[in-house]
Structure formats: structure tokens, C-alpha cells
């Protein structure tokens, strides 16, 4: 009973692992398209009935398996669900949801902030760098929404240090007033001459107190302006870095994906392949995004710190810097060691990034060419079947029967 109980506990893992292997002869012993389709149908049926995988995940299996076994192309398979470019965008959103669920963005941001230090100018750089990196692989809007709370936590530490120092100053002032009141009640101060002397000293002390109070008010106003300026810098750095990172890759921003889809349609009209691939886009977009990030950081340093008369007193506030550094280390240590879910999400992110980049290297190779070309569904009517003609420029021929074109390379 113990063995059966253990097997029942891991039944889902056994079904997910063994079912594709048991059904593998269907596609190994036969080259027919019907047999390949039966493999996917039976596999999906088993997963649906047993619920070894979530039903929604099982429904997306054809998107992966059809192109892998050469049954249909990835774009045509995705079009059965939604547009293929929208499918790419949804994949990025799913990845963003996984990163947010396991707090990967928080771990990366805290680690970078601990490394760069607690100087305001370096804090801004520490917020910009992880935001820029994450927005390259997931949507920039989702990245900005995930990183904004971290910048707010940093500003909260600056504010707490200011309030703490203000309360300490008020306490010292109250203590000094109590000491002065005790001095005034001394018996030696009750003579007339001492009384006039004491009155004069009180006036001078009151004037000093007024001057000190006015100077403290000015310091508070200046300090508030500095906090406001740093808060603007941190908030804007997150927003700008997310947009800049979205320039580097196709998945970084939705307009990039729309451009890719429209380019594919345009080149498809002329029976050729679009030169815009993930790798070619990254080749042009990454240098632009990298130098734009450096230029933005330098501009923030000049505008928010160097060009100010006080040149950023927050940078000289050692108490605030120490508290922020302590807070960052505490937050990072509270997260504990990396869990299996975090390692799995980071591994999937790295593998997905490599696969996106190396799938098609702009006609010079890529792992996508290792898989057989799927059957292309022709969007033509029966009287226009003669449009499927031989294209010598592409080195391929198209044999058409009704609605299907079997595209093969010579």
C-alpha cells in the first residue's frame, strides 16, 4: 500500500512523462499528416481527462507540438487561436506574471541596489538597470508597475530618517527649555540687578532661539524640496528605463510586435521571407537602448544633482544612507534563499531569451531550420489555385490541392 500510495501521489508527473513516450510510435512509424494529428489529439485527450496538466495549458499544446513535428507552421497554428504576433505578446505577459508572482523583479532590484550603494545618484542607476533589463523580455508597462513600489520603499526610508532626526531635534529643544526654566528659579537670580541682567540675557537668548527656529524652518523647506526632487528622479527613472528597455527587443513593447506582424504580411505578398527577426531586431535595438540608458542617467545626474546649488544634501545625509543600506539588506535577507519556483522561472527566462534570439539569425542559420516545414494553409479561393506557382527565387515549389499548399524545399 505504501508503494501504491507513493505512485498515486506522483501520478500526474508519471502521466505527463510517459504518455508522449508511449504515443511516440505514431509519428515515428508513419509520415502521414493524419497520424501526426492523431498523436496530438490523443495526447491532449489524455491530459484533459486525467487533468495531469491544467486544462488551459493542455489547450495550448498544439502551438508547440504542431510546428515541432512539421504538421503546421507556428504562425498558422497561432492563427487558429489569435494572431501569431498577439500570441507572442501573450507569452511575454505570462512570463511577466510568473516573475511578479515569485518576486524575481524584487530580488534582482534589491541585489543591484545593494551592489551600487546608497548614494542618490547610484540609487537611481540601481533602479534603472534592472528595470531596463526586465523590460527587454517582458512588457514595459508591466515592468514599470513592478518596479515602482521598490522606488517608493527607498523614498520611505529617506522620509523616516528625516522624521526621526526632526523628533530628536525637538526633544533636545524641550530639554534645553526645561534647563533654562530651572536656572530662572534659582535664588541667586532674584536680586534686581540680576533680574535686569537676566532679562537682557533672555532677550538675547530669545533672539537666538528665533534665529535658530527660522534657520531650522528653512532647512526643513530645503530638505522637503530635496526629497521631492529625489522622488521625481526615482519615479521618472523607472518610467524612462522601462521604455528604453522596450526598444531593445521585439517583446519589450507591443508596437514592436505590431511592426513585426505587419512586416511579415508585407513580405508575404511578394512570396519572400521577412528580414525582421528577433535576432536582427536585437542587433540594432540593443546598442540604441544601452547608450540611451547611459545618456539618461547622465542627464538625471546633471539635472537633479549637479546643477543644483546645494548639490544634493541627501547624498551627505549619512544617517539616511546607512538606513537605506540596512533596509535593502534586511529586505533581501527576509526573502531567504532562492526557492525552486524562483530558480525555475529564472531558468525559463534565460532559456526563452536564448531561444528567441537564436531561432532565426536573419537567414544565416538558427535552430528553427532544424525542424520540418509545416503545411501552409493558403488563403485563396478554388478559382485562384494557379497562384501557387513555382518560385525560383525562393528555391521552392508549391503543389496545391484545394485549400492546402504543401511547401517543400528543392
Give the arrangement of secondary structure elements.
Blueprint: H1 2-9, H2 11-22, H3 25-28, H4 33-50, H5 55-59, H6 61-68, H7 74-79, H8 84-101, H9 104-116, H10 120-134, H11 140-184, H12 192-248, H13 254-269, H14 278-306, H15 318-334, H16 340-358, E1 376-377, E2 396-401, E3 404-409
Antiparallel strand pairs: 1-3, 2-3
Total count of strands: 3
Strand coverage percent: under 5%
Instruction: Count every helix, treating DSSP H or I runs of 4 or more residues as helices.
Output: 16
Radius of gyration: 33 Å
Distance between the termini: 59 Å
Oligomerization category of the chains in this entry: single chain
Count of structural domains: 2
The secondary structure category is mainly alpha
GO molecular function: C4-dicarboxylate transmembrane transporter activity; dicarboxylic acid transmembrane transporter activity
Protein name: Solute carrier family 13 member 3
Subcellular location: Membrane
Main location: membrane
Describe the structure.
With 410 residues, this protein is mostly helical. It folds into two domains: 72 residues, no CATH class; 237 residues, no CATH class. It is 71% helix and 3% strand. It is built from 16 helices and three strands. It has a three-stranded antiparallel β-sheet, with no helix packed on it. Strand 2 and strand 3 form a beta hairpin. Helix 2 runs antiparallel to helix 4 and helix 10 runs antiparallel to helix 14. The longest helix is centred in the middle third of the chain and has 57 residues. It is flat. The protein starts with a helix and ends with a strand.
Amino acid at each position: 500500500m505504501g508503494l501504491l500510495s507513493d505512485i498515486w501521489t506522483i501520478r500526474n508527473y508519471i502521466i505527463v512523462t510517459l504518455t508522449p513516450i508511449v504515443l511516440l510510435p505514431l509519428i515515428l512509424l508513419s509520415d502521414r499528416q493524419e497520424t501526426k494529428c492523431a498523436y496530438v489529439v490523443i495526447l491532449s485527450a489524455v491530459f484533459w481527462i486525467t487533468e495531469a496538466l491544467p486544462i488551459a495549458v493542455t489547450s495550448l499544446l498544439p502551438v508547440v507540438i504542431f510546428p515541432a513535428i512539421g504538421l503546421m507552421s507556428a504562425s498558422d497554428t497561432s492563427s487558429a487561436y489569435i494572431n501569431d504576433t498577439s500570441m507572442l505578446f501573450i507569452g511575454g505577459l505570462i512570463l511577466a506574471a510568473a516573475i511578479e508572482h515569485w518576486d524575481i523583479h524584487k530580488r534582482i532590484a534589491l541585489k543591484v541596489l545593494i551592489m551600487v550603494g546608497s548614494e542618490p545618484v547610484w540609487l537611481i542607476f540601481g533602479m534603472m538597470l534592472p528595470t531596463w533589463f526586465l523590460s527587454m523580455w517582458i512588457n514595459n508597462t508591466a515592468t514599470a508597475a513592478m518596479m515602482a513600489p521598490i522606488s517608493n520603499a527607498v523614498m520611505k526610508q529617506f522620509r523616516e530618517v528625516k522624521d526621526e532626526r526632526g523628533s530628536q531635534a525637538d526633544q533636545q529643544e524641550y530639554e534645553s527649555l526645561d534647563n533654562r526654566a530651572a536656572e530662572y528659579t534659582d535664588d541667586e537670580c532674584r536680586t534686581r540687578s540680576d533680574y535686569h541682567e537676566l532679562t537682557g540675557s533672555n532677550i538675547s537668548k530669545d533672539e537666538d532661539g528665533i534665529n535658530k527656529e527660522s534657520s531650522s524652518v528653512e532647512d526643513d523647506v530645503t530638505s522637503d524640496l530635496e526629497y521631492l526632487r529625489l522622488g521625481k528622479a526615482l519615479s521618472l527613472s523607472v518610467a524612462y528605463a522601462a521604455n528604453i528597455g522596450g526598444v531593445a527587443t521585439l517583446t519589450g513593447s507591443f508596437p514592436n510586435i505590431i511592426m513585426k506582424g505587419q512586416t511579415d504580411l508585407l513580405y508575404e505578398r511578394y512570396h519572400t521571407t521577412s528580414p525582421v527577426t528577433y535576432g536582427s531586431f536585437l542587433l540594432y535595438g540593443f546598442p540604441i537602448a544601452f547608450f540611451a540608458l547611459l545618456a539618461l542617467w547622465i542627464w538625471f545626474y546633471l539635472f537633479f544633482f549637479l546643477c543644483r546649488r546645494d548639490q544634493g544634501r541627501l547624498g551627505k545625509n549619512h544617517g539616511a544612507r546607512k538606513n537605506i543600506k540596512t533596509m535593502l539588506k534586511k529586505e533581501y535577507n527576509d526573502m531567504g534563499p532562492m526557492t525552486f519556483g524562483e530558480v525555475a522561472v529564472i531558468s525559463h527566462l534565460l532559456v526563452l531569451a536564448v531561444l528567441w534570439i537564436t531561432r532565426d539569425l536573419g537567414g544565416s542559420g538558427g535552430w528553427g531550420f532544424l525542424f520540418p516545414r509545416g503545411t501552409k494553409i493558403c488563403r485563396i479561393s478554388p478559382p485562384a489555385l494557379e497562384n501557387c506557382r513555382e518560385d525560383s527565387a525562393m528555391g521552392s515549389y508549391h503543389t496545391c490541392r484545394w485549400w492546402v499548399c504543401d511547401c517543400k524545399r528543392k
